[in-house]
Amino acid sequence: MARTPSNMLPLGTVAPDFDLLNTVSDKKESLSNCKGKEGTVILFICNHCPFVIHINATIVEIANNYQKKGIRFIAISSNDVVNYPQDAPHLMKKLAEEEKYPFPYLYDETQNVAKAYDAACTPDIFLFDKSLKLVYRGQLDDSRPGNEIPVTGTDLKNAMNNLLEKKPVSSIQKPSIGCNIKWKN
Prior knowledge:
The protein is of the alpha+beta class. It has a single domain (about 5-180), classed as 3-Layer(aba) Sandwich (Glutaredoxin), CATH 3.40.30.10. Helices cover about 25% and strands about 25% of the residues. It has 5 helices and 10 strands, in the order E-E-E-H-E-H-E-H-E-H-E-E-E-H-E. It has a 7-stranded mixed beta sheet. A hairpin with a 4-residue loop joins strand 8 (about 125-130) and strand 9. The protein is globular, with a radius of gyration of 15 Å. The mean pLDDT is about 95.
């Protein structure tokens, strides 16, 4: 397991728009169509990464709770599917259905979206406010596969709660750690 940290995109960065294939609906989705009323969480994930598998159930639970409050979740996989066929779009759809993802699972075939977000690992997590300005980027919480710390989502939940309560989100943010995005050669 590679342990790659987030690049920590500068706070205040405006979310780059995109138009990507939703692997579940087989339709294109754009950020402007998917963004939340109060905020938007963008997750760079993939099917096979042990770090993502470790948090999948908690991400679904958090998304189900916070989407009711106006924060929309969007998952994107940017991995090279030639060398990592387990991350192919048809298998993304299967995983999204099995895990009951309450959010779109989009395929970034060109990897341009991951590059625009300076995403480095899976999971790489970004929270944008209603104006699509970055207020949080980093880890879900301190849990990692094998470290025996329960997955709670504390770091992301604190950031979302502050956003919803119109309080400043702490600028002290820890990078996510995960598998590196599988870039094309």
